[in-house]
Amino acid sequence: MEFINRLTIQLDRFVSFIGRSASWLAIFLMLTIIFDVVSRAQQITLVSSTVLQELEWHFHGALFLLTLGLGYVKDAHVRIELLRDGFSPRLRVWIELIGCLIFVIPYSIIVIYWGYEFSEMSFLMGETSEQSGLSDRWIIKGMIPAGFSLLLLTGIAIVLKCILYLYGPEHLRQRAAFIAETHHADLIEAGDQLATSESTDRE
Amino acid sequence: SEAPKTKNPEVVREATVQWKLSSAYNSTLPQLGTLATRLASELEIVSGGDIAITFYEPNALVPALEAFEAISKGALEAAWSTPGYWAGKVPALQLYSAVPFGMKSDQYLAWFYFGGGKELFDEIYHRYNIHSVMCGMIAPEASGWFKKEITSIDDFNGLKIRFFGLGGKVLEKMGASTQLLAGGDIFPALELGAIDATEFAQPAIDINLGFYQVAKHYYFPGWHQQSTFFDLMINLDEWNLLNDTQKAQIEATCGDSIRYSIAEGDAMQADAITSLKEKGVQIHKWSPEILDALLAAWKEVAQEQSAKNADFKRVHDSFVAFREKNAEWRDLGYLK
Amino acid sequence: MESLITILPLLMFPLLAVLLFTGYPVAFVLAGVAMIFGFIGMALGVFEFEQFFSIVLRIHGSNVNNLLLVAIPMFIFMGTMLEKSGVAGKLLDALQVLTRRIPGGLALSVMLLGVVMAASTGIIGASVVLMTLLALPPMLKRGYDPALATGTIVSSGTLGILIPPSIMLVIMGNLLSISVGTLFMAAIIPGLMLAVFYMIYILTTATLNPERAPAMPDEEGPKDLAALIALLLKSFLPPLALIVAVLGSIFAGYATPTEASGVGAFGAVLLALFNGKLTLPIVKDVLERSALTGAMLFGIFVTATAFSFVFAFLGGHELISQFVNGMDMGSWGILLILMAIVFLLGFFLDWIQITLIVLPIFAPIVGMMDFGDHVAAGMLLPWFAIMVAVNLQTSFLTPPFGFALFYLKGVAPKSIKIQQIYRGVIPFVLLQLLGLALIAAFPEIALWLPERLLD
Ligand code: NA
Ligand code: NA
């Protein structure tokens, strides 16, 4: 059980590290847009507009794909808690466990499998932009299986946390506490405690 | 007119070939989309109900620009598209959509069927497990909607224009800045001046979409798209499962669709031009100087693309060789 | 067996509804139901494993390779930055000072802000999230009834899909082959009319029940004119400049509406800098929160696209088409049924799929309708399109399932219960239905502007 606990900590840490790193893409996206707007208005072309505009959706795509898993680690995905409020903590944990086992994990595997095929096909064709934009389209396509791999790892970690809660010793239960107790994360208010520091949040 | 007939559910259930067809164009778009719905209903009639194709709007099954992969992997049986959409995957296929300063429809067809075009086409598509049947050809496109008049070659310099494909590369050579722009942004961007011009399609199509409300200068001829092919893409394994009768039915119906689309496309533009003029659109023709400059730029682009991609070179060489060989006959046979 | 296969797509809805109430994340329920029905389809021989490939193609083609959606992370970042740097709070404080004599002044300001922001985005989700980030914390802090606060925010946030520019109207224009310009024009008066209805409601509620919308007490806020001017200069003008920059960049032709979101994000960074809040911990915090909000939103986008794919593939479109084509009634009866179908689909499918499914099926039927002198034949489709747009906006707001409600819930503080959101949104939904009925009864509400201003 202690090993499972350490494993979930490592999985969460890995997914969070990638997700937090990817969150900086928003800055790159913003700067790219500003650069494009300003250079178009000033009639100067240092980099073609097509390249910049493709960069924009590349940043945007990588940003949301690489943070899907982080979203689940932090429990940011919306839930309808209308009935859930009345459920017992154990029932909530069971729902999470079953949900991961029959929804998140198999679905992620399907998307990873076909996403890999998709990216590989692009790589083998040497696919580029259909305009005079960026080359190596396989990289952004590869973000689909990459992002869902992170979601898969999160799903596995949550299954393990649920098992810890249901069958583990008392002191390991709070690893799954947020699944048992809260709804979904609070992105405005209580966000203060889930930000910045690596160690104090739910790890 | 030859309107599509409604589908009989009983027939669909009996059909031995039941394909879903993902279209790259909305069913309401004249020619681009209506040709596909017409194809589906004609095939059902011609095959006596043996071939049932269900038309799907773009994005209803797969996004327009992802049909290639879907067909290749067998996730989808058929798609309605134009080969130039696959420019980023297989650059040579662009020459099977429309070639800047390319041939008129009759000559383009002559090259495709009798000048070696089709052999290369099949060879290229089959590599990706796709069999494609040429299935439509539309009238020349317009050069696009411009907010300001273009009077000289210099006016292209710095022009912000949304323009696709090989024609877009030609304009970049002229100093234009081609824009990608999201579909939903084109209209407001043109209206408010973030872009100066956009290409779309031909008068009969453009008139419905209201570009004349925000850009009054409409340019001809569409040097970038004199005639444009549309194709029915089919998963190669599915194609191989067909018997000879079914294959012939598809090929014959598509052949007829080419006949139909050329005739329809040529007939439907006149009224559109008239009503565009009534709406205050200023119709312009490119000056010979501008066309010459665009042609020179296209030759550069064609050379660059040929140097970059062996298949592009093979197809382009075949195209040019046929045109040269055919030139004397065109000169002798036709009135200017 | 044959009949099971026929109704299979319809069975997806009840399963989805039941599973949503388990409290498992909405996004994963959408994905799970799609997958389960894919497997059921495989067992019945109407689906193959290869078809799951299309789901990946849709993730790429609709969500990744889609320049328009770039506005979403940018608006989220902008909203989060304004909130965390205190700019949004100060702006709303200033608005409260200015409107303290008007009942529900803060809610009215928020509604006005929503109308203004509507002119810079047309994507459901982006505007709802932005408005929630900016306005919900100050409204709750002031002691507003959470139901009224969330109802105000979610309804003002969805105005963005009606007030141009709006991607939904663009797609509708393309699907119906009618001018986007005409649709944009036609949507303006209905959009503003709804905003006015909302404001009247807020004003009435705040007058009758002041405790639901408390005003800033007199002892708070600036004491003299100098303090008031200082407050306006410090708290009101900078965000106002930001709004002017965002809208101005569009209307001056510097930026597309999508790019304006990036301009807004950049402006928010500058305001944070002037506020002395642009520190590394705050930036990291804002980035992580923005990423989580984006993950929440795109989690639903990505899985909704899988759900609607399976629905379409299993024959959902044909079912609707057969049902509609089999109807035998007058024009008004058919119109009512069409509207009901759009409304019901709005519970479960995202707008792009609804427009894709229903507009091509409905367009020929609508084209053949005859409303006599009620609507000119040439304006039938624009009128219909605007009604579909208002209808969809309503559907996204209607409990228990509405995508706009999910987005609001996703960013709202934990203390906000879905029940409160449900309760708060109902008056607004009723006002929208009233608006819809008025547009049906008086087509000129939509058609007057395009008929006057366009040829
Ligand atoms: Na808008
Ligand atoms: Na709803």
Order of helices and strands of chain B: HEHEHEHHEEEHEHEHEEHHEHH
Give the number of DSSP strands of chain C: 0
Helix content of chain B: 40-55%
Indicate the overall shape of chain B: globular
Radius of gyration of chain C: 23 Å
Strand content of chain B: 15-25%
Sheet/helix structural class of chain C: mainly alpha
Quantity of strands of chain B, as a count: 11
Largest sheet of chain C: none
Shape of chain C: globular
Q: Compounds present?
A: sodium ion
What's the assembly state of these chains? heterotrimer
Please describe what this structure looks like.
The complex is a heterotrimer of chains A (203), B (336) and C (455). Chain A has helices at residues 2-23, 25-41, 49-73, 89-125, 137-167, 177-181, 191-194. Chain A has 203 residues and is mainly α. Chain A has one domain. The longest helix of chain A has 37 residues, at 89-125. Chain A is elongated, with a radius of gyration of 20 Å. Mean pLDDT of chain A is 88; it is low at 190-203. Chain B has 336 residues and is of the alpha/beta class. In chain B, strands 7-6-8-5-9-11 form a six-stranded mixed β-sheet, covered by helices on one side. A five-stranded mixed β-sheet of chain B has the order 2-1-3-10-4, with helices on both faces. In chain B, β1 (17-23), α2 and β2 form a beta-alpha-beta unit. With 455 residues, chain C is an all-alpha fold. Chain C has one domain. In chain C, α10 crosses α19. Chains in contact: A-B, A-C, B-C. At the A-C interface, α1, α2, α3, α4 and α5 of A face α2, α3, α4, α7 and α12 of C.
Write the layout of secondary structure elements.
The complex is a heterotrimer of chains A (203), B (336) and C (455).
Chain A: H1 2-23, H2 25-41, H3 49-73, H4 89-125, H5 137-167, H6 177-181, H7 191-194
Helix pairs in contact in A: 1-3, 1-5, 2-3, 3-5, 4-5
Chain B: H1 9-14, E1 17-23, H2 34-46, E2 51-56, H3 67-73, E3 78-81, H4 105-114, H5 117-126, E4 130-138, E5 144-146, E6 160-162, H6 165-173, E7 177-178, H7 183-192, E8 197-198, H8 203-209, E9 217-220, E10 228-235, H9 236-241, H10 244-278, E11 282-285, H11 288-308, H12 310-333
Parallel strand pairs in B: 1-2, 1-3, 6-7, 6-8, 9-11
Antiparallel strand pairs in B: 3-10, 4-10, 5-8, 5-9
Helix pairs in contact in B: 2-10, 5-12, 6-11, 8-10, 11-12
Chain C: H1 2-20, H2 26-43, H3 52-64, H4 71-84, H5 87-99, H6 105-118, H7 126-141, H8 146-157, H9 167-176, H10 180-208, H11 225-251, H12 257-274, H13 280-313, H14 316-325, H15 331-348, H16 351-368, H17 380-397, H18 403-411, H19 418-441, H20 444-453
Helix pairs in contact in C: 1-2, 2-13, 3-13, 4-7, 4-12, 4-13, 5-6, 5-7, 5-11, 6-7, 6-8, 6-10, 7-8, 7-18, 8-19, 9-16, 9-17, 10-17, 10-19, 10-20, 11-12, 14-16, 15-16, 15-17, 16-17, 17-19
The structure holds sodium ion (NA) (2 copies).
